[in-house]
Every structure is written in C-alpha cells, then in structure tokens.
Description:
By secondary structure, this protein is an all-alpha fold. The model has no long low-confidence stretch (mean pLDDT 80). The radius of gyration is 15 Å and the shape is flat. It is built from two helices and no strands.
Amino acid sequence: xxxxxxxxxxxxxxxxxxxxxxxxxxxxxFGRGVSCGGCGCGLILLLLSIAFTCSILFGxxxxxxxx
Length: 67
C-alpha cells in the first residue's frame, strides 16, 4: 500500500518548516548571540532545515532502521 502524503500536505509542511526556520533564525541564527555563538547556531539550524526539507520532499524516514 502506498502511504505517501498528498501535495497539499507536503506544501503545508514546507510552509510550517519555513516559518519555524525564519523564527529560529531571528532568535538564534546568524548574527545573533555572543561572538561566534550565532554563527554556530545558525549553521546547526541550516543543516537541520536542509535535512527536514529533504525528508519532506523525498519521503525519507531517517529513523526507520528495518532490514
């Protein structure tokens, strides 16, 4: 059985991810924090955002370790 979500569901997830990413970048991202703290947090947020975007677009379940 094919359990892939529809287009509207994927667009909603991408919209919510973008909104969350923008909010977190404004609070903790690049240019925020003391010294290089904002750069480090911004890089971590960017990598997490890329991973979640790939997960949404390609339907990857990163926690499924079945053989």
